[in-house]
Amino acid sequence: MSRLPRRLRERWGRRLAGTTASDSTSPARAVEHGAFERLRGALEGVASHRRVNGAGRSLDTFRQAAQALGDNRLRTGLSVLGITIGIAAVMAVGTISRGGNHLVFAELETFGLNSVWVYRDWNDGIPQGARREGTGIDSADYESIRAARERLRLRRLTPIVRPYGEDRELRRGNRRVNAETLGVDVDYPDIVNDTLVAGRALNRHDVAARLAVAVVAPGVTEALFAPGENPLGGTVRIAGRRFIVVGVVGGKSRDFLSSIGSAGGQDANDRVLVPYTTLQRLQGEDEIDNLHLDVADFGEAETVGELVRERLRARHPVGYTYAAETMASYVRTTERILGGVSLIGIVAASISLLVGGMGIANMMGTSVLERTREIGIRKALGARERDILAQFLTEAVLISVTGGAIGLVVGTLASIALAEATGFPLIPSAASALGALAVSMLVGVLSGYLPARRAARLEPVAALRSD
């Protein structure tokens, strides 16, 4: 207290000396004693402000703000809790949204993100008498488009040939499994991002010689081969014909897309890939069900699909019309849906952050009313408006940053728990963490500014007269 004016030292010395140990057990007396201690620290801060500049002044402001918050621990704790809940909710929603996006696009990649499918449009409106039989695409069409793929801006392409009928059963001895048999060319694995885990892929010789060889997915190997048995070199029967297994591709997950009915009606792990020419020979014709294209530029998918349709129409001008679907359209639709869901989640979580900000504003407003006389004394002794403003803003920012830091920890733990519960991958983001802290600071500044400005603009005489 040696820094204070003599008359104030004498008055406070008598007042504080009158607070005995027995008095301190009284709640009212304890509050009064704490108020005097805080006021003494504030006045000492005013005196030190006159001698200290820069970092020392900032440190003094921080110390006074921390002391003021410590004198109201319950109120401060509740305000911190509000910010903690808001930041934790925003963090958890953001992390789960990123995980969901990653999961969905990882499953879409199993179809090939740059894919375009061209096929006969069976809803073409052509009169029954003028409609031609067949798929409208044959091997000659495929070879024509393959020869012009650079001009058509295609990176890869493959025909897709499916066996006739509904019989999807594959056999090996007394073991059977329902699986999808696809006749493809050598580019197919690269288009759909298949990974070879054993053996080899189909090659040009297999296609040209129409060999009875097959590459199988893990669901087929598990169903047709005994545990531990090497499927390479084994045989499976497809449409009554024996095929030799030459390769095995890795498993793919489309569980999430299947759960919402968007997996294309097929399990990627129940597939058998054979040369398309072999399947054509078994069926006695060279028709192709559809063309699966891989474009060089994702943004040109629709344009490339239209170019291929025009080429097919030029080769078959009568009796056929063609349609094209692109993965780009599915991707854009998915982005809109996931973006909307994420936005709704962030807005809902931000409401709790807004409530936390309102709690800080309410606390700071109450603090200004309670400390009006303290503010008046400080201003009477020479404290500037910006000093008062800085202290109250520092208190608000301290609350919000503390709540934000705790919220990051709680939000991370909540994200881990939600990732375990939902199966979504956990994708933390340093940018999100820094953004959450920045948002918490902004909430503190915005919530504390009006009460702090009101405190800074109090007239000393009016403040000193306040009860």
3D architecture notes:
Helix 12 crosses helix 14. The model is unreliable at 14-32 (pLDDT under 50). The chain folds into two domains: 52-104 and 335-464, no CATH class; 115-327, no CATH class. The chain has 16 helices and twelve strands. The two termini are 24 Å apart. The chain is 57% helix and 13% strand. A hairpin with a 2-residue loop joins strand 8 and strand 9 (241-249). The protein has helices at residues 6-17, 27-51, 55-70, 73-108, 139-147, 188-191, 204-209, 218-224, 255-259, 276-283, 301-315, 327-370, 372-380, 385-422, 430-456, 460-464, and strands spanning 115-120, 154-160, 169-172, 175-178, 180-184, 196-199, 213-216, 235-238, 241-249, 271-275, 290-295, 322-326. By secondary structure, it is an alpha+beta fold. The strands form two sheets. Strands 3, 4, 5, 6, 7, 8, 9 and 10 form an eight-stranded mixed beta sheet that branches. The chain is elongated and about 105 Å long.
